[in-house]
From TrEMBL:
The keyword Calcium applies. The lineage of its organism: Eukaryota, Viridiplantae, Streptophyta, Embryophyta, Tracheophyta. This is C2 domain-containing protein. Residues 1-103 form the C2 domain. It holds the Pfam family C2. One of its GO terms (biological process) is abscisic acid-activated signaling pathway. It comes from Vitis vinifera. Its main location: membrane. Belongs to the plant CAR protein family. It is found in: Cell membrane; Nucleus. GO terms for molecular function: GTPase activator activity; lipid binding; metal ion binding. InterPro entries: C2_dom, C2_domain_sf, CAR1-11.
Length: 148
């Protein structure tokens, strides 16, 4: 039996300058995967700068598994077009959760994760203690996202 480490809430905020997969625009949505779990946002019609502002919650069985993000363009009469993908590791976040952080002032930066060739970060990502919780904001760069 797998051991549940906890729940991971992912807030899917927005996409910026996504590829056009239809004639003038795209109808994007996001799929978040971790292991066998798969969650999906709603479709934002005719928008290459969509705002989802949705929370998706994954159960974490294995902290070594990456979280994978896939962005698709919904098509009515054909298979949905892949717009790009990205992934990130939750290891640094889990390490921060294991620290004794009670008593720290809200807004304290616990650690920083730098973009490199092994991750899809578009910029530095800070893991922060805020209002009694550990929070990490990520800006991800999609891979495999050429215009058609």
């Amino acid at each position: 039996m797998e051991h549940l480490h906890g729940l991971l809430r992912i807030h899917v905020h927005r996409g910026v300058n996504l590829a056009k997969r239809d004639v003038l625009s795209s109808d994007p949505y996001v799929i978040v995967r971790m292991g066998k779990q798969k969650l999906k946002t709603r479709v934002v019609n005719k928008n290459v700068n969509p705002e989802w502002n949705e929370d998706l919650t994954l159960s974490v069985d294995d902290t070594n598994l990456p979280v994978k993000i896939f962005v698709y363009d919904r098509d009515t009469f054909s298979l949905d077009d892949k717009m790009g993908d990205a992934e990130f590791q939750i290891g640094p976040f889990v390490e921060a959760l294991r620290m004794e952080l009670n008593g720290l002032p809200s807004g304290t930066i616990i650690t920083r994760v730098q973009p490199n060739r092994e991750n899809c970060l578009a910029e530095e990502s800070c893991i922060i203690w805020t209002e009694g919780k550990v929070v990490q904001n990520l800006v991800l760069r999609l891979q495999k996202c050429r215009e058609w």
